[in-house]
Amino acid sequence: MASLVRRGCSPLACACPPVLERTGLTLALLWAVLAGPAWGLSAAAAKVDITPDLRRSRIYMAGFGATGRRPEGVHDPLYARMLVLKDGPRTVALVGLDLLGFYRNDVEDLRRLSGFTGGDRYLFVAATHVHSGPDTLGLWGPLPGVSGVNRTYHRAIKEKVAAALKGLEERLEEVSLAGWRGTLDPKGLCKDLRDPVVIDPALSVLSFKDNRGRPVSTVVNWSCHPETLGRENRLITADFPGALCAKVEEETGGECLFLNGAIGGLLTPEAALGRDPWHESERIGRAVATAALRGLE
Q1: C-alpha angle 88/25/97, rounded to 5°?
Q2: ω into residue 226 within 30 of 0, thus cis?
Q3: Is 64 exposed, middle or buried (0-12, 13-18, 19+ CB in 10 A)?
Q4: Nearest Cα to 243, choosing from 232, 259, 258?
Q5: How far is CA 208 from the centre of its chain?
Q6: Distance (Å) of CA 214 to CA 145, 174, 251, 263
Q7: How buried is 37 (Cβ within 10 angstroms: 0-12 exposed, 13-18 middle, 19+ buried)?
């Protein structure tokens, strides 16, 4: 890992998102916890479906300052994507949720349920900040000031993720680590809607491979609001992070974990005028994924 730092690949410079656990800080702490030679580093990765069952759960969609937005169906699944790393006595877990946000008390619940409570055990949680998923913060219910959180569904998210994390610790295998940090031209991908225009062009990637050179997990850090579909959308979707992870997993055969960067007020997808927003969501996600994989090469 030290060689990666000397080549300028340390995630310490990654930007921080505006949701709960800050991505750059998460990667920086991960780097610090696992600092030193990567001998004996083990990893395991997985994803679990956290898409709400609209037939059984009354769900309100989060984002855009719009209340009373009920989903009419599911376009593509929402996932909790996770990576568990072990280096000597230290175990670090990263979880990325296809949700708009997750409160600190929810993170603490997840740490307790999964056994990541103190000592040499660390759990970091980040939300992609997607605007076409369920309300998990209580800000977008049927009326202003009325929570839209479905408590049964909310509890199920934590239980699913905790169970998956416990399972991953039983599947740890020795891995090697590679990383790359570069810039991605935001033109046609992301724009700033507010003055002054400030766009973080950084694209950071970490790759974990097993002893046979097969990818276990690829972690991608890039900055942009997942809101390609707009406030009129009524279908559950992971937006461009879903397409990004699908492309990486298709190309590598391993799992992908997307961690959003500094999205400020307001970095938003630059969808082409007149184009189908679903096509644009797919295009943006796959373009970022392609750039990340090229960087690793």
Answers
A1: 90
A2: no
A3: middle
A4: 258
A5: 17
A6: 49, 11, 12, 32
A7: exposed
Tokens of 269: 């997808």
Check the CA dihedral 242-245-250-253 and report its sign.
Answer: negative
Q: In this predicted model, what pLDDT tens digit does every residue of 224-253 receive, in sequence order?
A: 999 999 999 999 999 999 999 999 999 999
Examine residue 196 and say whether the peptide bond preceding it is cis (omega within 30 degrees of 0). Answer: yes
Tell me 11's DSSP state: G
Structure tokens of 259?
């961690």
Q: Which residue has the tokens 């031209």?
A: 185
Whether 128 contacts 80, CB under 8 Å:
no
pLDDT in tens, 246-265: 999 999 999 999 999 999 88
How many H helices and E strands in the chain? 6, 12
Q: For the full predicted model, state whether its pTM sits above 0.85.
A: yes
Number of Cβ within 10 Å of residue 53's Cβ equals 10
